[in-house]
Amino acid sequence: MPIYNKLVRDRIPEVIESTGKQFSTRILNNDEYIKELKKKSFEELNEYINTVNDNDAIEELADLLEIIHALAECHGTSIEEVERVRQNKAQKRGGFKEKIFLIEVEDE
Length: 108
Fold this sequence. Notes:
Blueprint: H1 12-18, H2 30-49, H3 54-74, H4 79-93
C-alpha cells in the first residue's frame, strides 16, 4: 500500500472509498494543518511552474488559490481581507502588469 503522508482535499476520502480501496486518514491539529498547507503550497506552486499550457496553468492556479483561502482562514481572516490588503499594496507599490525587471540599483 503506497504511503502518502500529505494533506488532501476534503472529498478525496470519498473518491478513494468509491473505488473500493482501503485507506487511512487522521485529522491534523491546527499547527500541523498550517505546516501542511505551507508544504502543499510549494507542491502546487511547483506543479504550476511545470505547466506547459494555459489550461493546466489555470488548474494549478486554482489549487494555489484554494490553499490561500484556507491559510487566510487559519490566520483569522477572510479571502476578502487578503484581497483588500493586496489592492492596497498594488495601489501603493503597483502590481506586476508592466513586466518591469530590475537590473541594478546604485549602491550608496
